[in-house]
Amino acid sequence: MPDTLSPLEIEARSFDIITQLLGDKVFDPENAAVIKRVIHTTADFDFADTLVFSEHAVLKGISALKNGCDIVTDTQMAKAGINKRILSELGGEVHCFMSDPDVAEEAKARNITRAFVSMEKAAALPKPCIYAIGNAPTALFALRELYDTGKLNTALIIAVPVGFVNVVESKELIISSSIPYIAARGRKGGSPVAAAVCNAMLYQIKRN
Fold it and tell me: Angle of helix 114-123 relative to helix 137-148, nearest 10 degrees?
């Protein structure tokens, strides 16, 4: 029979194993906790190489969270995975507008995706947000357009959609901007990755 471990002990042992398997790989200390949290969530060590960060992106995200910013996601799965208790203690909440009837109606009327419209709706929120995008490339296209036209007040974009159509291009569009970002280059990503990045920052705040 395997050892009976508590969830915290399992997590601690998992991170020890991740550190061992990474070997001599060295990360920027600001980014290490995020990278390891994503590997822990996915068991995919490719993220050690594909996760990229704008200058001080993690510190900027942590500062925004400490100041009570909200998080906007493009899936209910990502929303469910984010630690809302810690976020609430900091004065923030998580939004996902993808299933809102007004978003669906407008998307149909304009013949565009709900992800695009949901980002437009999110941009009207009264305070700067962290955008955690794990599924929809068109959400990133919308965010870049909103930013370029002066309609987006964002602390950080987590650009980690997964897939094959416009995924790589959408991430590179954010990386090439002046927006603070954490992105997963290539086709890999997903809602669990988006939530893991958010949680890595929230847990750092909780520990400190």
Answer: 40
